[in-house]
Specification:
The complex is a heterotrimer, with one copy of chain A and two copies of chain B. By secondary structure, chain A is mostly helical. Chain A folds into two domains: 96 residues, no CATH class; 94 residues, Structural maintenance of chromosome 1. Chain E (Arc Repressor Mutant, subunit A, Orthogonal Bundle). In chain A, strands 1-3-2 form a three-stranded antiparallel β-sheet. In chain A, α2 runs antiparallel to α3, α3 runs antiparallel to α5 and α6 packs across α8. Chain A is extended, with a radius of gyration of 23 Å. The two termini of chain A are 35 Å apart. By secondary structure, chain B is of the alpha+beta class. Chain B folds into two domains: 70 residues, Orthogonal Bundle (Arc Repressor Mutant, subunit A), CATH 1.10.10.10; 81 residues, Arc Repressor Mutant, subunit A (Orthogonal Bundle). Chain B starts with a helix and ends with a helix. The chains are: A mainly alpha, B alpha+beta. At the A-C interface, loops of A face β3, α4, α5, α7 and α9 of C.
Chain lengths: 231, 162, 162
Amino acid sequence: MTSGGGSDAVNGAAQEDFDERSIDILVSLAKNGEIDPWDIDIVDVTDRFLARVAELEKLDLRVSSRTLLFASMLLRMKSDALEESEPEDLYEEESVEDELQACFPALKSKVRRHAKRRVTLSELIQELKKATKRKEKSDVRRFMQLQVQEFDAVGLAHSEDIEGQVKHMKRELKRRFALRDQVLFSELIVDNTVEAIVETYIPLLFMATRRQIQLEQKELFGDLLITCKDL
Amino acid sequence: MNDRDLVEAALFVAGRPLTLIELESIVSIDADVEGIVASLVKEYGEKGALEIVQTDEDMVMQVKSEYADAVRPIAQRDLETPVLRTLAVIAFHQPVTQSKVAEIRGNKAYGHVHELEARKLVESEPHGRTRLLRTTKAFADYFGFETDSLEEIKQSIGQLLH
Amino acid sequence: MNDRDLVEAALFVAGRPLTLIELESIVSIDADVEGIVASLVKEYGEKGALEIVQTDEDMVMQVKSEYADAVRPIAQRDLETPVLRTLAVIAFHQPVTQSKVAEIRGNKAYGHVHELEARKLVESEPHGRTRLLRTTKAFADYFGFETDSLEEIKQSIGQLLH
């Protein structure tokens, strides 16, 4: 595997090439010691992956669009990782050179009782009832998602004229940036369908990677704030 | 600081039975720990909601049984709710694959199964690419099932569920 | 069962500060919980190794400070060391953004902050895309600071550091 160049992305091989290239980026990060493959920190990997994507400007366009989608998946994982941290994280060993190790014993807490009681059978049954209810709800949600998934976002990104979309978006944004510094993603959506949202989002991703704009999301699932950088 | 108070403080913070040796490790060298415990048992027995119970081997400070039910909702449980919920799903569907449990409970279930195995409430064996989970004898003991037969446990749970 | 004993049992099993509302939920409907707590505070204060401490919002049963060090080895660990260390970082740098804490302590810090907020030792408010963290009155209380002024707490910790 080589990173960057050598593009023989002919239709059938495109998917494989994408996978290879994305993984290639990760492997080269690992080789350079920038990530530890046995201890992946998704937040860190995402940041480094995005930085590397930005470096690889000469990528074949089709492959690059898939790589960006890959990056957006990583970003999603990153936000999930930031949102919730598994409880087992709490008990991981700490590195010994922590400078605060020596200081904290000096802060002594009050001594309270921390006994825990056993769970009763009826509490176990209560939880089973709740688990069953939740499952029913999530089944309904999954069914509804299936309807949406029939639309293939990846396929769209792959087949459409991305550069054309980027150009169009650039014009649209320049017009708006002439009047103010920031634009909301929701303003750009002409039609509230999944297709229209993805068609608006993908060119923005390209422009963000090329550092022409900056995308910011203040809160999870909130609106995207677009700032002009170098249009 | 007197030895009576040290023993009282130790029994309070431990939250579990303490042995004579453990108590002796914190009081002054010539203290009569057995005598102190005996007088604490009497003193606590006479008034209040707490008691000190002594067996041959150890002694514990606890809530008198008549108050136990009333304050149970306030006491912290030794299994966190999400983990307990995963355990309930396993107990009801067992023997059940880990992937099925993850499907019902989400990916966090893998961590929960890990904890439940460490607590020896659940055991697993390889099953294709996933693992097959079931509850253990320790689970039956913990929840007061008279049997550790999976079928009978599932039946009991099924009856309680409806 | 009497209400005084129910309050005593509740404070014992909780192992954490209880609010008036929590206590009221277990005693009889016409009980004077505040009066009961006040008399328990007095009663415990007069003798023995335990105390009941009441603040504006809540009350807790704990070991009197003169016995704390002696029985600390017996007490079950409360906050795990990594969580304590994150708390120390917050207390020393406060008010501090969650992202800054994560930068110092790694991504595990998000889980730690979650636990510290649940324990009410740390509180947060939105701050741009991250959150601004500071210690609470309960923190000052739990670690025996005489003040809950952030500046004074930071200074005390700074002195301990050097």
